[in-house]
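#struct-help
A.M.: can someone run this one for me? Single chain, 242 residues.
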Amino acid sequence: MRLPLLFLLCLLSFTATAQIFESKVRDTIVKDSVAPIADSKYREDQFYASLSYNLMQGKPGLYSQYSFSTGITAGFLRDMPINKRRTYAIAAGLGYSYNNIKHNFIVQPIENSVNSYQPVAEGSFDKNKLVLHYLELPIELRWRNSDSISHKFWRVYLGFKISYLFADKAQYQPESGIKIKVKNDANLNDFVYGAYISAGWNTWNFYAYYGFTPIYNNAPIVDSDQKLKLNALNFGLIFYIL
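D.P.: on it. Structure tokens below:
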């Protein structure tokens, strides 16, 4: 958890520094009374990072979350304008997603790579989380009212992404007793698909994502006819760097 957060903080710090530098350069241009020349081939928002809250959907009975379930994404998108004013664009790229879901369902290994899933009473454990690492392929349809001179503008980006699960860990730590860790859970879907939107002004942009594919593939719940699936719903902020 510390490394993704440290990476995000460094990235956001770089964003702020870049914006301050850009502002100083723009002020210098104005003071020199030289009319800036618009770049007809400029591109927008090619690096991104987001911080969001994971709110699980499709929850079975007795399922609940606690604390803050973190979602972090970062990556690169190639901006490809499709009109002369460059206010519309398509963007495609590569990203990484970290998800730390804190909930009350415990995953326990049985035998032959088979796991069991069952709820435990809140307050009876110190830690219970599911950590998921995804490699992502996003594609976006973009609108913005920017130009190459001023980069303070409104934007609305609609996106779709395919995410590949390359690492996972379920960790349960009771108040007393042995800690349980389960990795490479075969009941987790390797590929998930979802849509997202980011919209806002300048630095601050709202971000929301919904996963069409559930995280689990019909994982059986102990002493129940229900299945553990869980679809991700994320709300948060996203930041862009040129």
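A.M.: thanks! The first strand starts at residue 47 and ends at 57.
D.P.: also worth noting: Helices lie at 2-31.
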